[in-house]
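Thread title: Can someone regenerate the structure for this chain?

I was given the following input by a collaborator and told the matching structure tokens would be attached. They weren't. Posting the sequence so someone can regenerate them.
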Amino acid sequence: MWTVFIDGSAGTTGLRIADRLAERKELRILRLEESERKDPQARRDALNRADIVFLCLPDDAAREAASWVENPDTVVIDTSTAHRTAEGWVYGFPEKRGQREKIRTAKRIANPGCHATGFISLVAPLREAGLIGADAMLSCFSLTGYSGGGKKMIAAYEAAERDPLLDAPRQYGLGQQHKHLPEMTKICGLEHAPVFCPIVAPYYAGMEVTVPLFAGQVNGGAEALRDCCRSYYQDGLIRYADETEDGFLSAGALAGCDDLAVSVLGGEERILLVSRFDNLGKGASGAAIQNMNIVLGLDENTGLVRSHG
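Best answer:
Regenerated them for you:
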């Protein structure tokens, strides 16, 4: 039996992880009393007693908590932005070629960001196949449910008399300095960060990330892109999918699930790369549990919920 500690278990990511692990008989969950949750010594002790630690904390708190782990056998999986491009940390995207092997033996794993997961799932295979160059000037827009904004945003959207402006989608990250851009750029091997347009909409969970391309940006046509994605995603929680909902693509199609569907749509001149998933699933908690399963030598789907297909 392995011991697991979730530091920050009251947040949305921590709560989903706890829910997914609740029935896992091979795991023992360390829990702190309410009075101990903000006690540094109690947290430090739990961090060093655990085989697996999930950090579900703001960036600065995650850096501090990671520095407290002195047990050489403890594996830390950080769901914050703090360590995603940091030296000594393995990026927790097992479907990227060669990454699963690194995760399996890692002691420090940085869980990908939700928007970044969608972008990387679309661009990384094409970069590795040489279908898109490192100097590509890309754009990306991403729809997300409001649960991705954490407890404060959830409370705002679910308030009895909420601000009427919340009834429509809202674009943010307007200064083009979104915190996911460094990992999107680095992990895909790009020289330029994409023009990125994240949009939060008035529904709880689900994500739809789109990268539009002109034919001139691609070394090969749309079918070459489809073939690349189909062959690239054979294992893990990512699959290629052609289906739409009668010509529509709902951002909530995979809400409640932990996998991700990649599609190549459009025509030969103007192409749409689209990934759909749950921002709390493959975009956060599901990915963290997948990484834990790999470290423990288990089937990486264990305890996770997959959509059809």
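The domain at 2-112+284-295 is CATH 3.40.50.720 (Rossmann fold).
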